[in-house]
Amino acid sequence: MIKQYLLAPGPTPIPNEVVRAMDQTMIHHRTPQFSKAFAEAREELKALFGTKNDVLVLASSGTGAMEAAVANLFSPGEKVLVVNGGKFGERWMQISQAFGLEVVQLKVEWGKAVKPDVIENHLKVYPDIQGVLIQASETSTTTLHPVREIAQLTRNGPLLIVDGVTAVGVLPVPMDDWNIDVLVTGSQKALMLPPGLGFIALSDRAWGRTEKAKLPRFYLDLRLERKNQQKGSTAFTPAVSLIFGLRASLQMMREEGLERVYARHERLARATRAAATALGLRLLAPDNPSPAATGIMLPGGIDGDKLLDYFRERMGITFAEGQDQLRGKIIRIAHVGYIGAFDVLVAIGALEMALKKFGQPVKFGQGIAAAQEILMESLD
Questions:
Q1: Before 361, cis peptide (omega within 30)?
Q2: What domains are there in the chain, each with its CATH number?
Q3: First and final CA of the chain: distance in angstroms?
Q4: Closest CA to 68 of 173, 207, 193, 178
Q5: How buried is residue 84: exposed, middle or buried, by Cβ count under 10 Å (0-12/13-18/19+)?
Q6: Measuring CA to CA, which residue among 124, 134, 135, 183 is closest to residue 157?
Q7: Can you give the pLDDT of all 380 residues of the chain as single tens digits?
Q8: For residue 282, how far is the Cα from the chain centroid?
Q9: Which residues pair with 199 in a beta bridge?
Q10: CA distance 298 to 275
Q11: Strands in the chain per DSSP E
Q12: Strand, helix or coil for residue 380
């Protein structure tokens, strides 16, 4: 028997409490029982997003929430600035182009964060930009972008639309305090749920734009969803079992306390980065790393695909691969959601053993010891 460990940045492990909540007997979604559970979950989401406004729950992946943001806020031919620093920056670009928007692409080296002054310059060069689309945490490169600073540049200008799929529930992203106009996430990351729910919240001025936007939408019409969700239901059939799981996961996060949730993610991230560095490995995003996952550059001569196969098939551990030009060159170790200190030690121990197996000069325990020094903080 090989015990399985899911340590990729989504889907992530699911706590037993959430599994039990989703295992309830199915009920009809147009009932007071569902409305009660739905309303309780939506109220908890406001605290998580840091907003007084509605957080809408969609039966979709996080990409569905991204598409909803574009479809509900713009009109054909309008100009948007897309920060493209990874696969999900590319996705903002692809969605915008699919809806007939004019995209100004701001390319950023993978593993680097965009500089606010570069965005400021683009806004001066293109004064007709109607929206800035960016990731808070670019999952493909394990990089954080400076969303708070960028929000200061857009507060009286274009809408700031933020993909928070591996940021919400991982680090503070208080959309009202920071003046973020749109924030989206998905269920299968920090919320400790299976894939299948997308979440989106809009500022007051973003809601105002939905009345003027002329792009087509039907299933993802946010005005229709808000009207229904404020009454305790949804415009279309919801993912009922996932809503029960959502209520349970949000309760777990509230009981832990959001500040402790954020501190836990940061501590696990620092431990993972310290371990990789102690093993002589380079980090993909050393300057602006995300606390959701750590990208580690592999030593020359190691085939990353074969290494990941070895982790999965011989060790029972699933890490994430690199994408596009990084394929075969990195692994990504997640520490998002239902992940604890000893999961990190399992990950680092497996990394040491696999590197040894693939011919690297590894001193066993060196990475683990570096991680332990940081993980001990939680035991004080």
A1: no
A2: 16-255 (3.40.640.10), 257-379 (3.90.1150.10)
A3: 35
A4: 207
A5: buried
A6: 124
A7: 899 999 999 999 999 999 999 999 999 999 999 999 999 999 999 999 999 999 999 999 999 999 999 999 999 999 999 999 999 999 999 999 999 999 999 999 999 999 999 999 999 999 999 999 999 999 999 999 999 999 999 999 999 999 999 999 999 999 999 999 999 999 999 999 999 999 999 999 999 999 999 999 999 999 999 999 999 999 999 999 999 999 999 999 999 999 999 999 999 999 999 999 999 999 999 999 999 999 999 998 899 999 999 999 999 999 999 999 999 999 999 999 999 999 999 999 999 999 999 999 999 999 999 999 999 998 87
A8: 23
A9: 57, 185
A10: 14
A11: 5-6, 55-58, 79-84, 102-107, 129-135, 137-138, 143-144, 159-163, 182-186, 198-202, 293-297, 317-318, 320-321, 330-334
A12: coil
On the CB side of 274, CA atoms within 13 Å amount to: 18
269: left (phi over 0), alpha (psi -120 to 50) or beta: alpha
Task: Return the SS3 of 203.
Answer: coil
Q: How many residues does the chain have?
A: 380
Strands 55-58 and 79-84: unpaired
pTM: 0.97
The SS3 call for residue 237 is: coil
Question: CA-to-CA distance for 38 and 7, rounded, in angstroms?
Answer: 29
From 123, 126, 127, 131, select the one nearest 99 (Cα to Cα).
131
- Tokens 């990729």 sit at which residue? 8
Sole residue written with tokens 């602006």: 288
Tokens of residue 166, six digits: 């591996």
